[in-house]
Each structure stands twice: as structure tokens, then as C-alpha cells.
Amino acid sequence: MPIKIIEGLPVREKLREERIFTIEESRAHTQDIRPLRILILNLMPLKQATERQFLRLLGNSPIQIDVDFLYTASYESSNTPTSYLQEYYQSFDQVKEQFYDGLLVTGAPVEKMPFEDVDYYQELRDIMTWAQTHVFNRYFVCWGAQFALNYYYGIEKELLDEKLFGVYPYRTLNFEHPYVRGFDDVFHVPHSRHTRMNAEQILQVEGLEVLTGHEVFGPDLMVSQDGRDVFIFGHLEYDRETLSLEYHRDLHRGDRIALPENYFPDDDVNRLPVFNWRSHGHLLMHNWINETYQETPYNLEELLSW
Hints:
The record marks 192 as: Important for substrate specificity. By secondary structure, the protein is of the alpha/beta class. The protein has helices spanning 11-17, 25-28, 47-58, 82-88, 92-95, 121-134, 143-153, 199-204, 242-253, 278-295, and strands spanning 3-5, 22-24, 36-41, 65-70, 100-105, 135-141, 157-172, 186-197, 208-214, 218-224, 229-232. The chain is globular, with a radius of gyration of 19 Å.
């Protein structure tokens, strides 16, 4: 089934080239079904690249999905024109009376800052509070996952000595859990971050289950006991070239940056990176959509009484 997007969203043409099927509102109204409603809070500076990455994963589903994009009104983006956000995104004030099956919160390039120093700190806390009564399932990625773990459980963030940058093998720890259904024993995950969450604190939270981990880097994919909050530090949504673009961007800016590990064949930047995390990116999103579809109430307003 297609995903429903706002009329004229520019990334639609790129998705069409990849045979990711979308549907606009005028056509969706003629269908007598109950689609899933997903809200994506896109905190990344390059909005369209992130849109494409997550819409690609959401579009690989037999279920029709209605997608809205959310931006933070308390922060003025320096990379995306305000006119683009006003046309294709909504503010929290515009959605706070609505209900959604799922909320997806992306990463953000603010990880070195204390949470409370981020410009949209209070707005994001307000969104998190609202989501507990207006959204059935929530999915947090990278810095979004760090913020959520701190918000829900008080887990602290720690600065790494060196940036974790590359593609790393992670191990599946609980094959029985529906969110890792179909996962291999070991699979690859791209990472690009300067911080981590305190692993000892994560393991001490009774209502949090670690589903995948690395013997050195610790937990990566976690889920709340009720299955309604998913946290992942890695970037299974990344394109093949995302780490390459980031590496060359930082070189151009004169930043201190090492080659991404386990990424370029023989560490040769002129060779095409191996895309060895794509299948698990689709699989995790498929599992999340399936669990949301199976468990969410037909009338989302029932969430207010849960």
C-alpha cells in the first residue's frame, strides 16, 4: 500500500524513481480504509534527505500510511527555508489536538550540548508529554533516543573520547521479541555520534529491554516493557553514501575527522561503500509498523482514557 503525503512534497519524485509508492490526499479520500497515521519530527538539518530515508522505509509496507512532518517552532533552521517548513511541515500547535498511531523522532546535530541548552528543549519536552496521550507507539533515533531515555528514565549522556563513526557489527540478544523478528545473529549498523548513554543505567531500568548490543559500544536497540517506545542509537535508515557525504563535508570544513570504520573497501575513499545494513533497516521498520497496526485502537481518541 502507498503512503499518503502532503500534496506536492518535492521528495515524492525521488521516491517514485525508487518505486516507493505514495498517494496524495485527493486520491486517499476515495479509499474506505483506516490508514496508520505517522508523525515524523524531523530534527535533522538536511530535511529532504531525512524525509527520503524514512519514507523509503515506511513505504515498504502493505499498509497505507498517512505521514505528517513536524518541525520545532522554537528554533529557526539555518539549512531549510521557513517557506519550505510552512508548506510541507506542521508546528506542534497545529497537531496537538490530533491523534497518531506512531511518532518518529529523528536524530539532531546537537549531541555535544547539554539537553537543557538545546533551543527547542522545552518544546520537545512538551511534545514528549503530549505523545504519551495522543500517540500509540513512539520510535526514537540517535539523539532523539538519547533525549527520550533521559526524559523517561533520567539516564545520563556521556561524551566519547573519539567520535563513533562507521559501520559496526551488532548482536541480536532476544530473538523472541517482535521488534527483532527475522534479525540475523549479527548484523551491521551505521553510527555517527560523539556521545553515548550510560550503559549501566540502561541495564538497571526494569521497564527497559535491550534487544541488540555490541561488546564494546553497549546497547543499541531498546524497547519499553509495554512495547510502545523504541529507542535506537544507530542509523539503519542511512543511505549508502550518507557517511561518505558526512566525512567529506567535515574534511571540507577543516574539522578533525577520521575515516569511517568498516565502510570504504580497504579504506579507499574512491571505492563504493558496501551497503550492508539496508535489509535490517527495512526489517526493523516493518516490524514496528506491524506491531503498531496490530495493537493500535481503531479510534485513536481512546488513547485519552488509557
